[in-house]
Amino acid sequence: MSYKVTLIPGDGIGPEVTQAALICVDALGLDIEWETKIAGKSSMDQGGELLPKDTIDSIKKNKVALKGPITTPVGSGFRSINVAIRQLFDLYVCLRPIKSFNSPKALYQDIDLIVIRENTEDLYAGVEFKEKDSDTDKLIEIINKTAQKKVRPGSAISIKPISRSASERITKFAFEYALANKRKKISCVHKANIMKYSDGLFLDSFIQIAQNYKDKIEYNDVIVDNLSMQLTQRPENFDMLVLPNLYGDIISDLGAGLVGGLGLAPGANIGQNIAVFEPTHGSAPRHAGKNKVNPAATILSAALMIKYLGETEKAIKLEKAVAAVVKEGKFLTYDLKADRNDPSAATTQEFAEAVAKKIKSF
Length: 362
Ligand code: NAD
Description:
Elements: E1 2-8, H1 14-27, E2 31-36, H2 41-45, H3 53-62, E3 64-67, H4 81-88, E4 93-99, E5 112-118, E6 128-129, H5 134-146, E7 157-158, H6 164-180, E8 185-190, H7 198-210, E9 218-223, H8 224-233, E10 240-243, H9 245-258, E11 268-270, E12 275-277, H10 296-308, H11 312-328, H12 348-361
Parallel strand pairs: 1-2, 1-3, 3-12, 5-10, 8-9, 8-10
Antiparallel strand pairs: 4-5, 4-11, 6-7, 11-12
Helix pairs in contact: 1-10, 1-12, 6-7, 8-9, 10-11, 11-12
Bound molecules: nicotinamide-adenine-dinucleotide.
């Protein structure tokens, strides 16, 4: 079968890690035609829009994309193009598997955890009101008239919308994923003790949907701060996590730290019939163009994409090849070395070529 996939290399280390992923996908002998498109900083540098129509159309048409990270300025400047893509295509699931892969830098060697992050609302909705703005002042006035608690005049405000429909659909996805992938338990992560309405609604929606699966999948709930502590000490207590957007973002990085760093953390953004696959990490601008960062997260994101396309055997082969290269330890990028300045560290390309060679040896 042949496939057409949109490829967005991104910026910073994006072009290097996506190129490395292509080397590995090629070795699988899949018939994939890549349609390369730009977005974010690389598009702006060429005088284009942040999210060009051409790129949007390509994703719409091909329905599957592999994407490198895209830089978002901190504080001021444009809003995240990564978030914009998720919102535009209603890619409501962020799937982030966290696996040890025998990485020498993993804090635990037997982690196999699935993070399911709601991807469309929460503090990521981008509903914000800046300091010293007349609209913000009006909003504060209304809040102070209607709510029991008061907001300090002159504050900046970010809104945290959580809806029952979005909370229910992410929970349904999590339970269906658990059944399809023979997982055992789902933990709903929240802070409903403090945010009784927003996180309370997320938890209540989870509990309602979980009733439909109670004979098939074990479930519980855990407060996000407690989870953070438990994950670092007893990660084996958790199998799958379902979380609102912001906690999902933070806990995915914590999980990446447990298994050896962001270089090993893949991701998928999945909607009704469109999916965009990308590593958890960002564009790491200070490492850009050095051919030194770990491409495994992007290679593993490509494996998730190949599985999504229905090529499960090839996806397993790709994941096994990455696991074998990491376990053998001959071609480790600097981030997986005991000493990050170890001169024997493999380059991005060498790691990818070792994975491609491994695929051909199976
Ligand atoms: P980052 O993930 O880019 O980098 C943090 C650190 O992690 C790096 O300095 C590096 O030491 C390490 N790292 C990241 N990827 C690595 C890899 N593949 N191999 C080895 N080490 C790796 O996070 P940041 O510095 O907070 O963000 C940089 C930019 O990326 C920001 O503009 C941010 O908005 C953006 N970002 C984009 C995405 C996305 O495209 N989905 C996700 C997160 C951050």
